[in-house]
Write a structure and sequence with these properties.
Elements: E1 2-9, E2 17-25, E3 28-29, E4 32-41, E5 54-61, E6 65-70, E7 82-89, E8 96-103, H1 108-114, H2 135-142, H3 162-166, E9 198-201, E10 205-209, E11 212-214, E12 224-226, E13 230-234, E14 239-242, E15 256-259, E16 264-267, E17 270-272, E18 276-278, E19 282-286, E20 291-294, E21 308-311, E22 315-319, E23 330-334, E24 339-342, E25 357-360, E26 365-368, E27 380-383
Antiparallel strand pairs: 1-2, 2-3, 2-6, 4-5, 4-7, 7-8, 9-10, 10-13, 11-12, 13-14, 15-16, 16-19, 17-18, 19-20, 21-22, 22-23, 23-24, 25-26, 26-27
């Protein structure tokens, strides 16, 4: 067998190109169905392959002529390349290597691309991201112009843009974009309508869980439904996914939640069935595996609502809240140990309160404001959570 081939490039279409050849068998043009195996080489007779082989099965050969589509990826970088062809009858045994290897020569459009003039480039086909850094400014400088002419106006999203200030610009005013700053996001597959739920941000997704729906009409039960489900909103893809309810804690409202970096922790809150039932339990949801993990209740504080919770990097600290009245206590939950430690109520601790706010500074919890339903507070308190101390002695 022998093959004579030509390669025709498909320009501006990725790495795929058409290989056309003629297959002879015993000096006569072959006709039938054959399998072809193509490999790209760095040398005419020796060298090494430069890409994975391409195999075309059941190729029709008519009067010796065949065509195959080949894709060796980003192999053709300007260096010399040869293609080696193997052939066999369709579904046969080993491939028969045809010699010599075929040199890959440039197609007419590739030759043109190497020396195309500016007049041959369609307007708008070269965008700013295709230019080398500083290319536009360099071209202006060569023609005697500055990159930005004097008295020019530049807009920036920064109120103190150091690059512009260093270039001699002076901020002269502000500008607010005239478009609507609100836009509705996708709500398909989102959790059902609810209130009293919690939401956390993971860095790329928003997790919503729990809450309740009240139809405000006891004649059409259930008057109030507490949800045990939720959803995960993928911000980049504008898409909602559900949350497993397998192992999830019971439904509730007005609870609190923190994000640990890997898990959503929910705790507390209440459910209403004609009376208020305060929950002193919760759960840990891991979105990477869509699974719920148990959260210990051993040593946990009493159930409550309208408390605050902060995440320290290793613990969730709960303080205050309402249990048929404001409370003056709290606890720290250690994620690694899955254990609770009560916050020691030392003299001078803040008064009982609910509806206050809290943040974690990196070393201390700060709480501000709140009420005990008879007084309104405007005080600020700091709390350093307890840390275990281990005693070592040298024998």
């Amino acid at each position: 067998m022998a093959a004579v081939a030509t390669c025709v490039s498909v320009f501006a279409q990725g790495h795929t190109f058409t290989y056309q050849g003629k297959l002879d068998n015993g000096g006569r043009a072959a006709t039938g169905i054959f399998d072809f195996k193509f490999s790209a080489w760095s040398d005419e007779s020796a060298g090494s392959t430069v890409a994975a082989p391409c195999t075309n099965l059941a190729v029709m050969v008519s009067n010796g002529i065949f065509r195959c589509l080949l894709d060796f990826g980003a192999t053709f970088d300007g260096g010399a390349r040869w293609i080696e062809v193997g052939v066999r009858t369709n579904g046969g045994g080993d491939f028969w290597t045809l010699l010599p290897r075929q040199a890959v020569t440039p197609a007419p459009y590739a030759i043109h691309a190497g020396s195309v003039s500016a007049g041959g480039i369609a307007p708008g086909t070269v965008t700013s991201n295709m230019l080398a850094a500083g290319a536009a400014a360099g071209n202006l400088a060569q023609s005697g112009q500055t990159a930005v002419p004097a008295a020019a106006v530049m807009f920036s999203t920064q109120d103190k843009d150091t690059n512009l200030l260093a270039s001699g610009y002076v901020r002269t005013g502000g500008y607010v974009a005239a478009q609507n700053l609100w836009r509705e996001r996708n709500s398909q597959r989102a959790p059902s309508p609810r209130t009293g739920h919690a939401a956390v941000w993971t860095g790329s997704k928003m997790i919503v869980w729990g809450g309740q729906y009240d139809n405000n009409n006891p004649s059409y039960p259930p008057a109030r439904v507490h949800f045990q489900d939720g959803g995960v909103y993928d911000y980049a893809n504008d898409r909602w996914d559900g949350i497993s309810t397998n192992g999830a804690p019971p439904g509730r409202e007005d609870f609190f939640a923190v994000w640990t970096g890997e898990e959503l922790i929910v705790w507390g809150g209440f459910y209403y069935d004609g009376s208020y039932n305060y929950r002193n339990d919760g759960g840990r949801y891991r979105p990477a595996t869509d699974t719920w993990l148990p959260l210990s209740t051993n040593g946990a504080p009493s159930g409550r609502r309208w408390a605050t919770a902060v995440w320290t990097g290793s613990e969730m600290i709960i303080w205050g809240g309402d249990v048929n009245g404001a409370v003056r206590n709290g606890s720290a939950y250690d994620l690694l140990q899955n254990a609770w430690t009560e916050l020691t109520l030392l003299p001078g601790a803040p008064a009982e309160r609910l509806g206050h706010s809290a943040v974690w500074t990196g070393s201390e919890m700060l709480i501000f404001g709140g009420t005990d339903n008879s007084r309104w507070f405007g005080d600020l308190w700091g709390c350093v959570p307890p840390r275990p101390l281990f005693l070592y002695s040298k024998p």
